Amino acid sequence: MMTAARETLQSWLHRPLFLAMIAAALSTVLLLAGSLFVVMQQIQQRESDQMNAQGERFLQRLEQLFGQLRESLDDLQNQPLRGCDDDMIATLREVSFNYRFVYEAVYIDGSGVCSNRPRQSGLSVTRPPDLRGPTYSYWLNTTTEPNEDRAALMLGRGNFRVATSRGHLADVVDLPPGSSLLVVLDHGERAIPVLGPPQHWPPTEPWPPKSHNALQATQTRLIYRMPTDSPEYQLVLIAQRNGFTIPANAWWMLPISLMLGLGIGFQVFLLARQRQSMDAELHGAIRRGELQVLYQPIFDLNSRNCVGAEALLRWRRPDGTLTSPDLFIPMAENTGQIRQITDFVLQRLFDQLGQLLRANPQLYISVNLAACDVMVPRIGEVIARLLALHRVSAHQIAFEVTERGLIDVLVARDNLQSLRDVGHQVLIDDFGTGYCSLAYLQTLPVDCLKIDKAFIDALGHDAASSGVAPHIIRMAHALELKVIAEGIEHEAQASYLSSEGVRFGQGWLFAHALSAVQLIELITRGRRLLGRRFDDEA
Predict the structure, then answer these.
(1) In what order do the strands lie in the sheet with 221-226?
(2) Helices H, strands E: what count in the chain?
(3) CB half-sphere exposure, 536, CA atoms < 13 A
(4) Of 300, 340, 346, which Cα lies nearest the Cα of 497?
(5) Who contacts 451 (Cβ-Cβ below 8 Å, separation ≥6)?
(6) Is 363 helix (H, G, I), strand (E, B) or coil?
(7) What does the buried/exposed string (b/e) look like for 391-404 if buried means 16 or more CB atoms within 10 Å of the residue's CB?
(8) How many Cβ atoms from other residues are within 10 Å of residue 269's Cβ?
(9) Does domain 291-524 have CATH number 3.20.20.450?
């Protein structure tokens, strides 16, 4: 049942329309989610800006308030009058007149209390101060009554008390309903509301929060910590959140996300159709014999004799154009056709060069293996049958694997070792472009490293990459591995590589990829270049 379900799913995944619908739906959802995220970030930033602006205004006003309250207390403390009489009341009234933010001034002693507002008793509190300094004592809230004339802040020095009115704070910022301005004391243990109702405290655990962000957003509240220099207290502004609402002008997100999602779905549909078409074309190309096997000769850099060749696959369409292997090989790997292609290359190799290999036992042909062939032992059975049929020695067939094809090094090692045990050589192709570390390389059954063309081209030109090839050469020699340099195009490259101990190489300096007939001609005439370069039959 699981197999049937898997096959059904795979069949649906190969349908362009289904893939397009999935792509359109997912992209629409992702675009819409991304748009909502951006809107939420903008809303949060706007809330943060608003809270920051309110906090700055509160800080400025508090500095003004505390400054005037302290100055007025100093004036009262320095004047000689003591006791509640008419002169003291006149002095208290004069102080409240001279200082804008002093709403009420009070003198308290054992005989009584006198105030510039005798009919009010706003400062008759007897509770200990909320904050006691060396000179001044602070009462941060003397009442919670919603009366702007009642005291919000009070300072004391000696027998004198001065207070502001609630309106002196409320006039700088219009706090929303349920919002509060708090003074946090005792290292976060206590919070006293200066404006607004009491709040649940602490709002988060622990306090202060580890985050350095001034604004904290919860599901129900915005908590803003004002930057104060005092280690004794913190100012915190708490506002209630009305819940997340999408702005009215954000309606455009849905149609735009939908249109972009449909556009992406259409592009996926075209790509899937193209891939499906190429998949079908590749299947037909195998059946019609449009695939060709060419051979890139490998030469001894010292003697310039041809010692072997690398089998290369080409797709020549009926109109004569060539399709790059970089296009159809990955597609064949994804669709599972790569196994059929590998078998085709091996079969064509033996059909074309079987007699040549039997006559030249020192000659070898290397074949590229895809990742799926490296990870299963299937290829060993195929090559064993062909070797027996064509009477060719196992050491004349080498296998090239790329670093990127070693998906599971442990599994690959076992399968490659099985091939090596019967006599096949194992080559690491395009070495230096993958992720094969030295530790893995030491454990893999490898006979030879092939240096990628990019590092050969960099010799003497790219300072950043020119040192890679010599490094690979030294590493290979330390591991007692042979080295083949790919993409040699200039005599200077060949001379340098030879001086570094590289014995073998391939590239356009010697020959392009040859047909089987051209390779046989090269070998049978002595395997030595005589002043001219063989060109690709294309």
Answers:
(1) 190-195, 180-185, 234-240, 221-226, 215-217
(2) 15, 20
(3) 14
(4) 300
(5) 431, 432, 469, 472, 473, 483, 484, 485, 486, 502
(6) coil
(7) ebebebbbbbbbbe
(8) 18
(9) yes
Distance set, CA 366 to CA 212, 316, 345, 413, 449 (Å) = 62, 22, 11, 18, 13
Token duo for residue 187: 């290292």
215 Cβ contact list (under 8 Å, min separation 6): 44, 47, 48, 51, 52, 222, 223, 224
User: Which phi and psi angles does 327 have, rounded to 5°?
Assistant: -90, -50
Instruction: Enumerate the β-bridge partners of residue 310.
Output: 296, 366
Reduced to 3 states, what is the DSSP secondary structure of residue 367? strand
Provide the residue-wise pLDDT of the chain in tens; the chain has 538 residues: 455 555 455 544 455 666 667 767 777 777 777 777 777 777 777 777 777 777 778 778 878 888 899 999 999 999 999 888 889 999 999 999 999 889 889 998 888 888 888 765 555 556 788 888 888 988 887 654 555 455 568 889 999 999 888 777 777 777 777 788 888 877 777 888 877 777 888 777 667 777 777 777 777 778 878 767 666 677 888 887 765 556 655 666 667 766 776 677 666 655 655 555 556 666 666 667 778 899 999 999 999 999 999 999 888 877 777 777 777 777 777 777 788 888 889 999 999 999 999 999 999 999 998 888 888 888 999 999 999 999 999 999 999 988 776 767 778 888 889 999 999 999 988 776 655 556 667 778 889 999 888 888 888 665 445 677 888 888 888 888 899 999 999 999 999 999 999 999 999 999 999 999 999 999 987 544 444 444 544 3
CA pair distance 140, 441, nearest whole angstrom: 73
pTM of the model: 0.51
> Is the distance from CB of 214 to CB of 208 less than 8 angstroms?
no
Rounded Cα–Cα distance for residues 232 and 247 (Å): 41
Q: What does the block give as tokens for 231?
A: 């280690």
Among residues 195, 242, 197, which one has the least CA distance to residue 222? Answer: 242
CA neighbor of 228 nearest in space, from 182, 192, 196, 189:
182
DSSP β-bridge partners for residue 137: 132, 156
Q: What is the 3-state secondary structure (H, E, C) of 468-532?
A: HHHHHHHHHHHCCCEEEECCCCCHHHHHHHHHCCCCEECCCCCECCECHHHHHHHHHCCCECCCC
Cα–Cα distances (Å) from 157 to 88, 129, 138, 160, 362, in that order, read 16, 11, 9, 5, 108
Amino acid at 161: R
Q: Which two tokens stand for residue 157?
A: 């020095």
Both tokens of residue 203? 């709002």
For residue 227, give every residue at least 6 positions away whose Cβ sits within 8 Å of its Cβ, in sequence order, or none.
59, 214
Question: Is 299:503 a contact under the CB 8 Å cutoff?
Answer: no
